[in-house]
Amino acid sequence: MSITSTAAYLARRAAQKERVRILYRRALKDTLNWAVHRHLFYDDASNLRERFEANKHVEDLDTIDRLIADAEASYNKWRHPDPYIVPWAPGGSKFTRNPTPPEGIEIIYNYGREEND
């Protein structure tokens, strides 16, 4: 193997590891959307981890790319249609409930320590 092919191999492996890491995190968070109770989530999360661990020792780069593509397709097919969104996050029920004040209005938070003129 030459230096350029070694560098290309390492770059491709790093990209694959990153895609797998992102896919696992997204699938794990989506598993929490499907589980009503924590004890159900723990079983589902354990099964998900086993599915990822089953292909941990695959070395062929093309096979890894195919496995990642299949897993991403499966994730997109079974993704929750109405995921839980933290209320204060974008898309949540409390997001921008208290919008920023308009230009020219200054809010001073002295809480009783105002200057008495």
Automatic annotation (TrEMBL):
One of its GO terms (biological process) is mitochondrial electron transport, NADH to ubiquinone. InterPro entries: Complex1_LYR_dom, Complex1_LYR_NDUFB9_LYRM3, NDUFB9. It comes from the Eukaryota. It is a peripheral membrane protein. It is found in: Mitochondrion inner membrane. Residues 19-72 form the Complex 1 LYR protein domain. The keyword Plastid does not apply. The keyword Acetylation applies. GO terms for cellular component: mitochondrial inner membrane. Keywords: Acetylation, Electron transport, Membrane, Mitochondrion, Mitochondrion inner membrane, Phosphoprotein, Respiratory chain, Transport, Ubiquinone. Mammalian complex I is composed of 45 different subunits. Accessory subunit of the mitochondrial membrane respiratory chain NADH dehydrogenase (Complex I), that is believed to be not involved in catalysis. Complex I functions in the transfer of electrons from NADH to the respiratory chain. The immediate electron acceptor for the enzyme is believed to be ubiquinone. Belongs to the complex I LYR family. This is NADH dehydrogenase [ubiquinone] 1 beta subcomplex subunit 9. It comes from Senna tora.
